[in-house]
Amino acid sequence: MPTRTSRIPGYGDVHLAVDFVGDSRAKPVILLHGGGQTRHAWGTAARALAERGYQALVVDSRGHGDSDWSPAVDYSMKAYVADLMSIIQCLDTAPVLVGASMGGQIAMTTAADHPTAVRALVLVDVTPRIDREGRARILGFMRSHPQGFASLEEAADAISEYLPHRPRPTDLSGLKRNLRLRDDGRFHWHWDQRFLATYEPDADEAEQRYCEAARRIRAPTLLLRGSQSEVVTLENVEHFRKLIPHAEFFDVHGAAHMLAGDRNDAFNAAVIEFLERI
What we know:
single chain; alpha/beta; globular
């Protein structure tokens, strides 16, 4: 599968790592990961899209993976949207945006603020209104283990405790891509923990902002929800569909918030069916 990695200038002296998977002449689909993840979360989806004739652009958001950490510790929505627009401006045609969790919030805001720059929108287990207890649980895990892990096995144990519904992997090579061995001899998550303090400091303000953005979205939109989601309830879905009446909705059974990882097959099929239909 043709793949190349580029570093694209973003907003405020930050450069972004982007994998281009598939034919460069094909219609582009940009994949945006969730907070605390990296572009490697999309490996299976990117290959599936490329095999069906699309070009997948898989992005490490600022402060994550191989993209730069912000020198100014700017992890605001304004910065994330500006980064995404820097990538979109490198393309000859408007892309489809596929965003999970934080990536979905970035995609939703971009589609509202720059309507001509986005062909369609796929939101993965994220709505303007999310369950506060579920959000707190996710953030609690992200803030845990600030001293890192002594081994990959210890990190895998922590994830298994947090995600008991998902089988513990026997091959830890995928997990290794999300960790970095630092000078202290311990494995740390490969993202800047400072982003948690500046990304959404006020949950009420963020919810209001996302609701206002949703009302302005005109692009074809698909919401995918994990049936066991910790953050997107069916009430949240109904609220979302009132904000975007033209949006489609699909519930992926057997999946939680990490929908693409829990049910790769169902996720890929739903996204590709939507893209081919629009």
